[in-house]
TrEMBL record:
<dbReference type="GO" id="GO:0007601">
    <property type="term" value="P:visual perception"/>
</dbReference>
<dbReference type="InterPro" id="IPR014752">
    <property type="entry name" value="Arrestin-like_C"/>
</dbReference>
<dbReference type="Pfam" id="PF02752">
    <property type="entry name" value="Arrestin_C"/>
</dbReference>
<dbReference type="GO" id="GO:0001664">
    <property type="term" value="F:G protein-coupled receptor binding"/>
</dbReference>
<dbReference type="InterPro" id="IPR011022">
    <property type="entry name" value="Arrestin_C-like"/>
</dbReference>
<comment type="function">
    <text>May play a role in an as yet undefined retina-specific signal transduction. Could bind to photoactivated-phosphorylated red/green opsins.</text>
</comment>
<protein>
    <recommendedName>
        <fullName>Arrestin-C</fullName>
    </recommendedName>
</protein>
<feature type="domain" description="Arrestin C-terminal-like">
    <location>
        <begin position="1"/>
        <end position="151"/>
    </location>
</feature>
<keyword id="KW-0716">Sensory transduction</keyword>
<dbReference type="InterPro" id="IPR014756">
    <property type="entry name" value="Ig_E-set"/>
</dbReference>
<dbReference type="GO" id="GO:0002031">
    <property type="term" value="P:G protein-coupled receptor internalization"/>
</dbReference>
<keyword id="KW-0844">Vision</keyword>
<comment type="similarity">
    <text>Belongs to the arrestin family.</text>
</comment>
<dbReference type="GO" id="GO:0007165">
    <property type="term" value="P:signal transduction"/>
</dbReference>
<dbReference type="InterPro" id="IPR000698">
    <property type="entry name" value="Arrestin"/>
</dbReference>
Length: 158
């Protein structure tokens, strides 16, 4: 089985994350399930190395892939704070009960920069897992940035 995933490097809060999933199933087995999810990874590097992974969005479509066939489809997931308000341990931008609060934006840093200075590092992973009948699973993880748009870009849309 060959699994490839294509998505943009950067998305804005509230924007759908569109991902193209391509599966080349050159086996005699059926791909019976496809699982898609977005995880927020938070590294606390202030005092010790704590790492937290929280699922902020997921989907399990009813798509299958027949033996010796190919499959391509574009899926769309939108991670929002509204869907995750009851979860504990998420990194957020803003105040907990404020309207403008979002999931935390990805931390951007330069190569060679001391990460301990940043304190908390937030990143996001898009994960795709395919489960094959009586043969196991294949998965891929693709990092991406989740950010606020630049103020000038917000003004252009108003």
């Amino acid at each position: 089985i060959h699994l490839s995933v294509i998505l943009l490097q950067m998305y804005y809060h509230g924007e759908p994350i569109e991902v193209t999933v391509h599966i080349n199933n050159n086996t005699s087995k059926v791909v019976k399930k496809i699982k898609l999810c977005v995880d927020q990874i938070t590294n606390v590097v202030l005092y010790q190395l704590d790492k937290y992974a929280k699922r902020v969005c997921s989907e399990e479509p009813n798509d299958t892939v027949a033996p010796n066939s190919t499959f391509t489809k574009v899926y769309s997931l939108t991670p929002t704070l509204e869907d995750n308000r009851q979860k504990r341990g998420l990194a957020l931008d803003g105040k907990l009960k404020h309207q403008d609060t979002n999931l935390a934006s990805s931390t951007m840093f330069r190569e060679g920069q001391d990460k301990e200075v940043l304190g908390i590092i937030v990143s996001y992973l898009f994960k795709v897992k395919v489960i094959v009948s009586r043969a196991g699973e294949v998965s891929v993880e693709v990092p991406f940035y989740l950010m606020h748009p630049k103020p000038s870009e917000v003004l252009k849309t108003l």
